[in-house]
Specification:
alpha+beta
Length: 194
């Protein structure tokens, strides 16, 4: 028997995860309003997957998605494993299942990870370093691109789907994702890609 199946979450599941889990898994300043997520879902610019066992969501992965020249690509927006299941390899297995399953049709998938070099305390440095190591260990590649998003410094990683992207292509696609989410004036003010 499989540990879990990867399923596209329904709107009611997405709302429940938001209320019951995301508010605990992410700081308030990193959490989009639920209405924003619902709007992006309605425009087919967002997709949410769960690692599900017996109707229970063990982990979830939310993605912003856009199409450029008919090619779909996505940004990991939220990714978390249920707190009581962390450290049991579910996060790693879920990433691998996503790559073999629903994400294999994407032309590219990128992820923002807090830059350890910008940590403000030893504890924050440890958390950021462990998070970066987790994603690198699970096959994501450092693109060499960095971004400042609403004042937060990120390194941009990519899933190894298709052929590797050059830094300029990563920057262009990353910008397209945020342009789909934000009004132009907010994009210009809050998104810096370098």
């Amino acid at each position: 028997m499989d540990l879990f199946t990867v399923e596209t979450l329904s709107l009611s599941q997405i709302r429940a995860v938001y209320r019951e889990r995301m508010k605990q898994d992410f700081p308030p300043d990193e959490l989009k309003p639920l209405k924003m997520i619902e709007g992006a879902l309605a425009r087919d610019e967002y997709v949410c997957f769960g690692a599900v066992r017996c109707e229970e969501i063990l982990a979830y992965a939310y993605f912003v998605k856009v199409k450029e020249d008919g090619k779909p690509f996505a940004l990991f927006d939220y990714y978390a494993v249920r707190k009581d299941l962390r450290g049991q390899k579910i996060g790693s297995l879920f990433i691998q299942a996503l790559m073999r399953g629903p994400l294999q049709d994407m032309d590219a998938v990128v992820l923002e990870v807090d830059d350890p070099a910008c940590a403000e305390s030893p504890k924050e440095l440890d958390i950021r370093s462990r998070r970066l190591a987790f994603y690198l260990r699970n096959g994501l590649k450092d693109t060499g691109v960095a971004a400042t998003v609403f004042g937060v410094q990120f390194r941009i990683l990519a899933l190894p789907l298709g052929s590797p992207m050059a830094a300029d292509e990563v920057k262009r696609r990353y910008a397209a994702l945020y342009r789909a989410l934000l009004p132009d004036r907010l994009f210009k003010k809050e998104i810096l890609i370098h």
